[in-house]
Each structure stands twice: as C-alpha cells, then as structure tokens.
Write a structure and sequence with these properties.
Pathway: Amino-acid biosynthesis; L-tryptophan biosynthesis; L-tryptophan from chorismate: step 5/5
CATH class: Alpha Beta
Number of strands: 9
Keywords: Amino-acid biosynthesis, Aromatic amino acid biosynthesis, Lyase, Tryptophan biosynthesis
Structural class: alpha/beta
EC number: 4.2.1.20
Number of domains: 1
Order of helices and strands: HHEHEHHEHHEHEEHEHEHEH
Shape: globular
Number of helices: 12
Distance between the termini: 58 Å
CATH architecture: Alpha-Beta Barrel
Subunit structure: Tetramer of two alpha and two beta chains.
Strand content: 5-15%
GO molecular function, one term: tryptophan synthase activity
CATH superfamily: Aldolase class I
Length: 281
C-alpha cells in the first residue's frame, strides 16, 4: 500500500517532469537574506500607471529606497477579481489616464535600475495572454523583473507559463488560500518558485485592523507541503501587523495601505509609510 498522499499524485499528473525550482531566483535569495538578518521580507504592492505612469514610477522607486525588499507592480485590469475598493479605484484611474500594458515594463525597469529591491509583476492572466506569454516573459526579464504573481492562474492551466518562466529565468508565484486542500497546497508548492503567496483572508484586498488568525496555520500547512518560502498578504496595514506576521512567515505583503498613501500624499507619502512598515521611521 502506497504512503504517498493524494497531492503528490496530482502534482505528478499536472506538472512537467522537468519543472525546476529556479536555482537562480533573486526572490528566493532576497527572502533568505532577510531571514538571515532576523526579519521578514517587506513586500510592497503598487499598480503601474496610478495616478499616471510617471508618478507610479516615482512611487515604486520610493518604495524600494525606503525599505521594501520586493516590489509587486500591478497591471490595471478592467475586471478585477480579488482587488478591494481602494485598488479598484486606483486601477480604474490608471486605465482612464491611458495606461497600457507595455507601461508596466517601464516601472519594473525603474525599480531594477534605481533601487536594490526585487521587482515582480502582479497581474490577472488575460493581459499576459493578449501580449503572448513568451513575449511578456521575455520583455519582463529584459526589464529586470524577477517573476509574476498570478492571482487567477492555477497550476492546472499554466503549461505555457511553465515553459516561458523556465526559458526566461522567471519565478512563478501562485496563491494559497485558507480553503486550499492538502492536495492543492502540494500542487502549488511544487509549481511555485520564489515564494508562495498565502492569502490570509477569504475575500478581496483591503487594509484591516487585525490580521486573520488562520494565516499562521496556512503558512505552516504550505511549508509542510514543501514550499521553500511563504509570504502573507491581504489585510496588512501597519508595523504591528508586519511584526506579528513576520514571527511565522518569510515575508509580509502590503498593498492597499500603500496605494491609499500614494492617492493621499504622492510618492513622498509612500516612502514615509514604507519606512514605518519596515521599522525604519
């Protein structure tokens, strides 16, 4: 009788036999370096093009220069699934102001060239499909990007992305949720590289007064499934949350609070909040 749990069988059926873990991952290296310093990686999210492409470039650079280790550059999209009202408003504004998908590479390049933070793109999958998966991956790598976070792409449907990510040395960041089964967590852990994005709450993004108590268990379960690094997002808005989550996760992801700071006070406000979140203020 086999002692292999069902998730391993699912992963072997779905994932390419030659799918590697990206040994040259800049994301994994940065997260490991943060852990050696006794702290979690600070991961900040901002949408490209908000309120304009120029201002989004400067805001992303401010993130990187004030304590963010990893920067997620979001692609505004007309039909968001997991974005709360603050980010929805920002992305709607960016689209109204003329944002185009190609603009994201300009923001990524600025982060890569003007800061020491590791830039990644966070996007729904349709914009990548529209450009062409390999073309998008090639342009992202050329701009200095390290990978893509894919909220609505599951490993079961990611064959083209697996090929492109390996061809261009990019990380694949998939999501794990409190509702994910052991079988699903096993698949995500094996498919991902860089880190797994652990969604701490069921629902849309947004700053919250308290972080869900299921987050710690989700991190433990995802690690048990084989994930090398697990970062927690959704609901993080203040330094106390960073410290709380950092006690058990490899990285802490902040989005809505930073987007609100940008909307209210521009890139300078983003820099000030980043320093506070990083414990540098």
């Amino acid at each position: 009788m086999s002692t292999t749990h069902p998730g391993a069988d699912l992963a072997s059926r779905i994932l390419p036999a030659d799918l590697g873990s990206n040994p040259d991952s800049r994301l994994a290296a940065r997260i490991a370096a943060c852990r050696e310093q006794g702290r979690p990686a600070l991961v900040g999210y901002l949408p490209a093009g908000f309120p304009t492409v120029e201002e989004s470039v400067e805001a992303a650079v401010a993130l990187g220069r004030n304590g963010a280790d990893v920067i997620e550059i979001g692609i505004p999209y007309s039909d968001p699934v997991m974005d709360g009202p603050v980010i929805q408003h920002a992305t709607t504004t960016a689209l109204a102001n003329g944002f185009r998908v190609a603009d994201v590479f300009r923001v990524v390049r600025a982060v890569a060239e003007r800061t020491d933070a590791v830039p990644v793109v966070m996007t729904y999958w349709n914009p990548v499909l529209q450009m062409g998966v390999d073309t998008f991956a090639e342009r992202l790598a050329e701009a200095g990007g390290a990978g893509i976070i894919t909220p609505d792409l599951i490993p079961d449907e990611a064959a083209e992305w697996f090929a492109a990510s390996q061809a261009h040395g990019l990380d694949r960041i998939f999501l794990a949720a409190p509702s994910s089964s052991r079988e699903r967590l096993d698949l995500v852990a094996k498919a991902a590289s860089g880190f797994v994005y652990a969604v701490s709450v069921m629902g849309v993004t947004g700053a919250r007064d308290a972080v869900s108590d299921v987050a710690e268990q989700l991190v433990a379960d995802t690690r048990a499934a084989g994930a090398q690094h697990v970062c927690v997002g959704l609901g993080v808005s203040r330094r106390a949350h960073v410290e709380e989550i950092g006690a058990y996760a490899d990285g802490v992801i902040v989005g809505t609070a930073l987007v609100k700071a940008l909307a209210d006070g521009g890139p300078e406000a983003v820099g000030a909040l980043t320093r506070e979140l990083a414990g540098l203020a």
